Amino acid sequence: MATNTAKNYALVTGATSGIGYELARLLGDAGYNLIVVGRNPNEVEALAVELREKNIDVVPIAKDLFDRENAFSLYSDVKSRNLPVEILVNDAGQGLYGKFQDTDIDRELEIIDLNIASLVILTNCFLQDMLAAGTGKILNLASIASRLPGPWQSVYHGTKAFVLSFSESIREELKDTGITVTALMPGVTDTDFFNKADMNDSKAVQDPDKMADPADVAKDGFDAMMAGKDKVISGLKNKLQVGMANLVSDTVVAHQMNEQQKPVDEE
């Protein structure tokens, strides 16, 4: 177990479960102090108690990042406590399952605010401090969805395409600053994402054995971020799927994804 001797912090959104939780654990093991962010106050407090066993400082902050204004207030809270953030992990994200014509447009807009607006706000705010310090690392949770049209999850796939493009763009802008930006691109992973997206009837999630372990995905993202890489597709199967998609038309890929993601009871 690492003992932290540094003063800097890693901030992880979506830290109470799934990939975000595993990333927080890895960062704690590496000796970073942590700022863990989630919607549920009890869950972030419980996580802080757990992670403090790693002999690090852990600051729990409850914020609902579906409201973009809370991204600004999160930054203000961190600054008011004089906590220097060296690593920013934008993990918080959500989807909504169903044909776009049938989904709740207000919920879709909230997902855009969470997956895009809050991520952009936090990146912009903490980037200013990283530039002043001359160092920093940003890990953004993209997805292989960023490379694939996504029938039954059209808005989610669109938001992840934004995250990947945005990450690659600012990485180039920052190449001479000492700050790196990495995009993590997992595929279907064994997290609570599918429950929250009301997606349990999708063909894509019927076999738990085919889902990636979030700990393995987090390790891929952590290693890529620490090495300063631009992006990483987690898992051989996902690498092959993206590679094959590059060889055929988007129309063909969209049809293939429709077949993979439609409900099990739909012929």
What CATH architecture label applies? 3-Layer(aba) Sandwich
Number of helices: 9
Please, how many domains?
1
With strands numbered from the N-terminus, the spatial order across the biggest sheet is: 3-2-1-4-5-6-7
Helix-and-strand structural type: alpha/beta
Helix content percent band = 40-55%
Taking the sheet with the most strands, its summary is:
7 strands, parallel
Tell me, rounded to a whole number, the average pLDDT: 91
Q: Which fold name corresponds to the CATH topology? A: Rossmann fold
CATH class: Alpha Beta
Q: Mind telling me the CATH superfamily name?
A: NAD(P)-binding Rossmann-like Domain
Report strand %.
5-15%
Cα distance, first to last residue? 52 Å
In N-to-C order, the SSE pattern is: EHEHEHEHEHEHHEHH
Structural shape: globular
Please provide the count of β strands.
7
Low-pLDDT residue intervals, each spanning 5 or more residues: 1-5
Pfam family, one: adh_short
Family: Belongs to the short-chain dehydrogenases/reductases (SDR) family.
InterPro entries: NAD(P)-bd_dom_sf, SDR_fam
Keywords: Oxidoreductase
What would you note in describing this structure?
The chain is of the alpha/beta class and 267 residues long. It has one domain: Rossmann fold. It is 46% helix and 14% strand. It has helices spanning 18-29, 41-51, 68-80, 105-133, 154-173, 193-196, 214-226, 236-245, 250-261, and strands spanning 9-13, 33-38, 58-62, 85-90, 136-141, 179-185, 231-233. Strands 3-2-1-4-5-6-7 form a 7-stranded parallel β-sheet, with helices on both faces. Strand 1 (9-13), helix 1 and strand 2 form a beta-alpha-beta unit. The longest helix is centred in the middle third of the chain and has 29 residues, at 105-133. The termini are far apart. Keywords: Oxidoreductase. This is SDR family oxidoreductase.
